[in-house]
Amino acid sequence: PSASASGTFDVVVVGAGFSGLYLLHRLRRAGFSAVVLEAADDVGGTWYWNRYPGARCDVPSVEYSFSFDDSLEQEWNWTERYAAQPEILKYLEHVAERFDLKRDIRFNTRVEAATYDVDAERWTVQAENGSTLQARFVAMATGCLSTSSIPNLPGLSDFAGPVLHTGRWPHEPQDFTGKRVAVIGTGSSAIQAIPVIAQQAAHLTVFQRTPNFSLPAGNHPLKPEEVEQVKATYPERREYLRRSRSGATYEYATVPALATPEEVRRAEFERRWKIGGANFMHAYTDLVKVREANELAAQFVRDKIAATIRDPETARKLMPTSYPIGTKRICLDTDYYPTYNRDNVSLIDLLEEPLQTITANGVRTSRQEYPADVLICATGFDAMTGSLLAMDIGTTDGQSLRKVWAEGPRNYLGLMVAGFPNLFTVTGPGSPSVLSNMVTSIEQHVDWIVDCVDHLRSKGLATIEASQDAQDAWVDHVREVANTTLYPQAASWYMGANIPGKPRMFLPYIGGVGAYRGKCEEVVAAGYKGFVLKPAQARAAA
Ligand code: NA7
């Protein structure tokens, strides 16, 4: 562990991933004193922890990158359509280096509490290593998918070999040659890891609870001409992303599937399937709104699964039928389905043969024990709220975030929580976040936050807080927009359904990146409508 940190700052930032790095850069440039507290021993956030084989982004890398600095954009060369984890981590290290960020980051410093003193109008932030810092503002740049979830599987501690989680992958290279590997889970992480592990392992047994819809990523090396073409048009491209539906370039649909003749529709699905990536889900305007339309897309993918998998039983098990396509996060893969045609891969359906216990030597279901030398939990995260609620966030007048959010997160614009002045959340629940290109959304939030702190300074104001009314209205709006879609019908992590006891509520804002940005801008133009801004209290100023 690093030496404990102390001191008084304008802003304490928690987390040194994409959000925390950009926050630090912008705060410094605006002349604020800032420090970043980071649990890991280096920068990267998500891309520091998720080192499992096959880990890569699902948004084209030329867009899954910062837009705030022209020369950074021009000098960095992405090598693949979807960058793999090592390349993204290298990029973030480069950013940290280039803007000399590390000197203001305290590593090995996991924040455990943040308390707002209502009299002094100051936050005190405490970390497990004894660090105690004071600040006027705190910005939580803690990520949406950063608190790993390891299910409480019976017998897990009896397992004789290593137990790995995809989101907490060891830094030492893992060699599965000659090993029998068990993977639990078939979400995005598993779907990326399985084809790679299958090439190494003696045998790979996949334990699936709910099958997922996966689309071909269509990943490929980027040709220098492609990169040059993007670089030549970056300003327009980025501006388009900021105003787009999901912060990335897709051919956004203009017509509903149900109004399209079958032949045309099939050809369009096929064309988008070949382009790869999430383009498929943007084929028609009604795909995530009307069940009948959704079913057309779902059946197209099931037909692809049937055509790919040689064993009909395995194909049947892999076909999702219990929820609309896209309402659990759509997965993108490279050779996921064909991997089940390999002799050294078997698929176990936990709905047909429930998992009974982990044993010293493997996994036992109601039918039999499956031997394993290594157990990989690809079991996901306590999404969006997990990392915030892992900290004890409160105020000296008795507010506690854990209490206020006991029935689910409530905030205004995904940025601030009523009762917690000067506390910001980057890509918090109630913002587009996980339904968008995260980097586009992160930049928008960071810009909004730094502009806000700058505004307070220029007006001689000390505090900003979301009003209760504006918060209530925003929470209602987030729910109403979600309810115009099929999303709430799936037991997904978007709904908090993957964590036992977590309140069910649609967490991100599905109104669209461009529309959301517009709302944030309107709020500012109307003098921070829905927020209460105040000068320093007499007591605090004294
Ligand atoms: P996900 O998408 O939450 O996937 C977790 C998987 O683990 C999923 O298939 C779960 O099945 C399965 N799971 C979880 N708990 C259990 C238990 N107790 N038994 C059996 N199977 C279980 O996490 P990922 O890491 O793949 O992806 C998260 C996001 O990160 C991803 O969407 C990208 O945005 C990046 P279930 O569906 O719950 O039946």
From TrEMBL:
GO molecular function, one term: monooxygenase activity
Matching Pfam families: Pyr_redox_3 (PF13738)
Keyword tags: FAD, Flavoprotein, Monooxygenase, NADP, Oxidoreductase
Superkingdom of source: Bacteria
InterPro entries, A to Z: FAD-binding_Monooxygenases, FAD/NAD-bd_sf
Family according to the record: Belongs to the FAD-binding monooxygenase family.
PANTHER family from the UniProt entry: L-ORNITHINE N(5)-MONOOXYGENASE-RELATED (PTHR43098)
Protein name, entry field: Cyclohexanone monooxygenase
Annotated source species: Panacagrimonas perspica
